Each structure stands twice: as C-alpha cells, then as structure tokens.
Amino acid sequence: MSAPKxxxxxxxxxxxxxxYADLTAVLGDAAEVAVKDLEVYRQAFPPPGYSLDxxxxxxxxxxxxxxxxxxxxxxxxGGGAAALACAANHPGRLLSLGMxxxxxxxxxxxxxxxxxxxxxxxxxxxxxxxxxxxxxMRLQVRPGVPLPAPPPGPPLPWMQQRPDGIRALMGAFHxxxxxREALTAFDRPVYFALGGLSNPDQFAEIAExxxxxxxxxxxxxxxxxxxxDPPHRAEPxxxxxxxxxxxxxxxxxxGQSEP
Length: 259
Known about the structure:
The protein is 45% helix and 13% strand. By secondary structure, it is of the alpha/beta class. It has one domain: Rossmann fold, CATH 3.40.50.1820.
C-alpha cells in the first residue's frame, strides 16, 4: 500500500511549517504530507467575505493541485474547525479526519460554561492589538497554566497578521452553519487529540459533543499538554503513531470498498 496522503492545517498563530516541523520530521517518508497555511493569511489582510468555506476551498485546491482525489485531513485549532467544515461539505474527499483541539465545532448543544467562554471571546474583539494575544491565549488553558513566552527580538512579519486573522476566524465561527446531520453521516475514522491542561470548557466539551456525532471516533488525551504546548510539537512521535493508525484504517476502508 502506498504512503497515506495527508494535508495538515495549522491554527491561527504559528505558520504551518513552524507548527508541524516536529511532526513532519517524525513522519519522514511514512506519509506524503502537504503542510498548508490557512487562507485567512494568504494576503496581508483577511479576504472580503471570509468564512470557513474559504478554508474548505483552499484545502480542496491544495488536494487538486497534487492530484489527490481522496486524502486524510488533520487540523489544529482554527484549522480543526476548517477540517470539520470540509468533512461536512465534502465527505467523499476525505479518507479520515484528525482534529487537534479544534477551536470551534458548531453552535448546537452548548453548555452554560461554553456559552460564557464565547461571551468572553466576544469581549476580546474590543481590545487593542498589544493586549489581544495574551488575553486570547489565556482563555484556552486551565487557570494557572503558564503560557509560552513570546520569541525574543522584534516581532516577525507574520505576527502582524495574527490579531486580524484571529478576529476573522472568530467572526466566521459566529456566522457559520456547520451541518450537524452531514457530520453524523460521515463514516470515516475520526481522531481527536485533547490536552489535559487546556481549558475544558472549550476543548473537552467539544470532544464530548463530537463523540456523540461521529460513529467512528477515537479520543486520545495527552495529560501534560495544552493548546499552546500541543502534541504535534511536544509529543510528535506519540501523535504520529496514533495518526498513522487512523490513516491506515481509512486507507483500508477505501481498499475494501473499491472493486
């Protein structure tokens, strides 16, 4: 069997090549990997009319450019939300779906704590750029968990885009109609990596809701990890092993269904 064909989507902070450098190094030649940046950062400012469908079109464009009719899709944080939208709208293109703490997963069955969390996110939109990032990051980890220090030296050029890009993604979450019934019908393996130190009101709740949606759902908890110390950077060998198992099952299902 040929190596699995995989697209990796990053979150809204690190560029894709930095976010996935450790994971791709571990995978080596075991998978044919396309590391793709989010469409929200394709230009200096988010494109007009930006939505999760913009990200879905970008994913399909990447696959088409590589001649991949079907592929495995893995997304972290904002990229995880985009991966969910891709699974809902184009399930026939995906061999499996991997989610590394998706930032958002639809607007149904929210608990009161989840609703309060998103009200806090809404308030962030009023903050100036120099306060926005720290407040945004703090909401995504458990109280008392230390956040990574910013890199030394002047901000890198790509950092200038992040506040506007994050606001655009959060606005897209607020207006997007993720199709719950389409996700329920998704019949491919689904993997979810959850950090034990991440804010449970966001990520553990999303994991539990998606567990009730997908028929073939694997949840793996990384107790010492959190949203800004994720397994694809901190435990890439363990994550690679788990993803390879999911990709193998997805490929086998396709082989069994084809004449």
